[in-house]
Amino acid sequence: MGRLDDRVAIVTGSGRGIGAATAKLFASEGAAVVVNDVDKDPAQETVEEITKAGGKAILNVDNTVTFDAARNLVAQTIEEFGKLDILVNNAGITRDKTFHNMDDEMWDFVLDVNLRTAFNNTRAAVEHMRSEAKKELEGQGAPAYHRKITFTTSTAALSGNPGQANYTAAKMGLVGLTRTLCIELGRFHINSNAVAPGFIETRLTAAKESSEDPNIGIPEGIRNMAMVMIPMGYPGQPEDVAKTHLFLASSDSDYVSGQVIVVGGGVVRY
Ligand SMILES: NC(=O)c1ccc[n+]([C@@H]2O[C@H](COP(=O)([O-])OP(=O)(O)OC[C@H]3O[C@@H](n4cnc5c(N)ncnc54)[C@H](O)[C@@H]3O)[C@@H](O)[C@H]2O)c1
User: Fold this and answer.
1) 13 C-alpha to center of ligand 1: Å?
2) Distance of alpha carbon 32 from alpha carbon 9, whole angstroms
3) Beta bridge partners of residue 173, listed in sequence order
4) pTM, whole model, 2 decimals?
5) How close is the Cα of 201 to the center of ligand 1, in Å?
6) Sheet of 56-60: strands edge to edge?
7) Does the residue 15 lie in any domain?
8) What number does the ligand 1 atom closest to the CA of 43 have?
9) Spatial distance between the Cα atoms of 116 and 63, rounded to a whole number of angstroms
10) Which of 31, 32, 35, 70 could disulfide-pair with 56, CB 3.0 to 4.6 Å?
11) Can you tell me which atom of ligand 1 is nearest the CA of 241?
12) Exactly one of 167, 234, 255, 270 is catalytic; which is it?
């Protein structure tokens, strides 16, 4: 028996990194997963890995920076799997520059990908989740089970981080969403939590000097400095965050809402 048997989940940005690890883990625990990413090829690979292992997954390449796209993502999920129980807002991107060099384009792009997609996806998901829970509440006195929404903030946002005014503003916006939705949706047993990864080995934290995309990554010197600050002395892997997403998506966390869980090898942030 899996920890997510009979559950249907959307994981955004699941073509790579933390999202891909989360989609695969959820599927291995019994969930039907909608793999959403703007990059089709890696997302298709995630779907194929899941289905080859005997799991259930479909591909979606909507860029949910518009609400129509988010509605389409949720509609496709319901059409294919009949419902939506879990939304993991994981898609994220960086465009680092010191504040005095930051322009409108970098600000808008990073706010759109990190914050607006999560707002749109959550709005579209809540339309469905809340109305299902309301029917159950009226019919039998309580929602049938807890539905789960998770956001992805960052330890960089909780402490502030040079070169990331856009990213940290977006990621703290997600903390505000997490806490407000926890209160608004509590009576419908829709849990709202956030994970705050520390330093996790993905393309976002790869050395900029050898990065596949020159817009993404961290200069080698900063990487080394960041590594020294991790109490456990080693960087995290995408699977470390995926396991926390699993906890937050499963019934083990039914009485946990409004929380930000740091996954940072001992890094403490509030
Ligand atoms: N890696 C870390 O150390 C770290 C630390 C803190 C927070 N995070 C956050 O974790 C999340 C995952 O990051 P990662 O390190 O796995 O990055 P990644 O770049 O490996 O994966 C992110 C995926 O998101 C996709 N994506 C980008 N824009 C999208 C959009 N509009 N809609 C759907 N998908 C989109 C990308 O194509 C990519 O496949 C992000 O929100 C990131 O900000 C990562």
Assistant:
1) 6
2) 6
3) none
4) 0.98
5) 11
6) 56-60, 32-36, 8-12, 86-88, 147-152, 190-197, 260-263
7) yes
8) 39
9) 11
10) 32
11) 10
12) 167
Measured CA distances, 225 to 150, 158, 159 (Å): 29, 18, 15
Question: Which is the closest atom of ligand 1 to the Cα of 16?
Answer: 39
Residue 212, in any domain of the structure: no
| Protein residues whose CB sits closer than 6 Å to any atom of ligand 1 | 12-13, 15-19, 36-39, 42, 63-65, 90-93, 113, 117, 152, 154, 197, 199-200, 202-205, 238
Please tell me the total count of domains within the chain: 1
Residues in the chain predicted with pLDDT less than 70, given as ranges, are none
Number of H helices and number of E strands within the chain? Answer: 9, 7
Give pLDDT, residue 103.
97
What is 185-245 written as a DSSP string? HGGGTEEEEEEEE-SB-SGGGSBGGG-SSTTSSB-HHHHHHHHHT-TTSS-B-HHHHHHHH
Q: What is the 8-class DSSP label of residue 101?
A: G
Q: Is residue 180 part of a domain?
A: yes
In this structure, what CATH number is given to the domain that contains residue 144?
3.40.50.720
Structure tokens at 203: 């393309």
Containing domain of residue 153, as a range?
8-200+236-262
Return the structure tokens found at 183: 């209160």
Centroid of ligand 1 to alpha carbon of 11 (angstroms): 11
- Does residue 254 sit within a domain? yes
Per-residue pLDDT, 208: 87
175-198 pLDDT per residue, tens: 999 999 999 999 999 999 999 999
Residue 2 tokens, joined:
């899996």
